[in-house]
């Protein structure tokens, strides 16, 4: 997904422009650090103390020039309006925030989108509600697969996300599937010897119909008009 995000940034903004980036639900700061190393000014919002500690530890090992481009704010994803003025950022990341049960997810997305400057890009990563039964089914969990055919009302599929992004002023520009073939791999699995081939296949599938439609996750990029 990092490759896809970089692709969209390079294609949308002038080469060499230092962007103002907001990473909502920054986690351990992996993506934030990657963007800061690329020269951008990155602000991360995170509420989990352990994740914040891990991010700060990672940032501390960077050269001063990179550390100066990074800032962490402890807070909830829905509180962006408390900390920032509307239109303050060129790129807003909201990756994984809507994976869990979130009250009023559409309102949260609307608040995040208000942080975008005109022409700014919202990068959104969510669980694919259109393919909720895939992982359970491929794992042989038939009861779980049957239950997943009736996803909760808070789940997102492509059609709902397209409508939501249009409604919050950041219409869908492009989208990808993430984890088409590899979603059943264990988190602690040993990396395969042919990792480059695996990544190449996943990247190709994530861009190609009909494969991307059954990916475990959806990566969508909306653009503020």
From TrEMBL:
<keyword id="KW-0949">S-adenosyl-L-methionine</keyword>
<dbReference type="InterPro" id="IPR013216">
    <property type="entry name" value="Methyltransf_11"/>
</dbReference>
<dbReference type="InterPro" id="IPR029063">
    <property type="entry name" value="SAM-dependent_MTases_sf"/>
</dbReference>
<protein>
    <submittedName>
        <fullName>Methyltransferase domain-containing protein</fullName>
    </submittedName>
</protein>
<dbReference type="GO" id="GO:0008757">
    <property type="term" value="F:S-adenosylmethionine-dependent methyltransferase activity"/>
</dbReference>
<dbReference type="Pfam" id="PF08241">
    <property type="entry name" value="Methyltransf_11"/>
</dbReference>
<keyword id="KW-0489">Methyltransferase</keyword>
<dbReference type="GO" id="GO:0032259">
    <property type="term" value="P:methylation"/>
</dbReference>
<keyword id="KW-0808">Transferase</keyword>
<feature type="domain" description="Methyltransferase type 11">
    <location>
        <begin position="22"/>
        <end position="123"/>
    </location>
</feature>
């Amino acid at each position: 997904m990092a490759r896809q995000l970089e692709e969209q940034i390079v294609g949308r903004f002038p080469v060499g422009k230092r962007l103002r980036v907001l990473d909502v639900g920054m986690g351990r700061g992996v993506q934030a650090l990657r963007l800061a190393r690329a020269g951008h000014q990155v602000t991360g919002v995170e509420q989990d103390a352990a994740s914040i500690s891990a991010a700060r530890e990672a940032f501390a090992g960077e050269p001063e020039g990179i550390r100066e481009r990074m800032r962490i704010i402890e807070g909830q994803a829905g509180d962006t309006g408390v900390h920032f003025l509307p239109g303050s950022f060129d790129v807003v990341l909201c990756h994984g925030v809507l994976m869990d049960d979130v009250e009023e997810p559409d309102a949260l997305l609307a608040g995040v989108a208000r942080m975008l400057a005109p022409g700014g890009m919202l990068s959104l990563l969510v669980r694919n509600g259109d393919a909720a039964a895939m992982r359970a089914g491929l794992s042989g969990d038939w009861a779980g697969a049957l239950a997943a055919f009736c996803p909760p009302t808070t789940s997102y599929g492509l059609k709902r996300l397209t409508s939501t992004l249009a409604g919050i002023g950041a219409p869908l520009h492009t989208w990808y599937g993430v984890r088409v073939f590899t979603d059943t791999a264990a988190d602690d699995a040993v990396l395969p010897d042919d990792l480059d081939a695996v990544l190449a296949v996943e990247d190709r599938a994530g861009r190609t119909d009909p494969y991307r439609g059954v990916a475990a996750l959806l990566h969508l990029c909306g653009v503020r008009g």
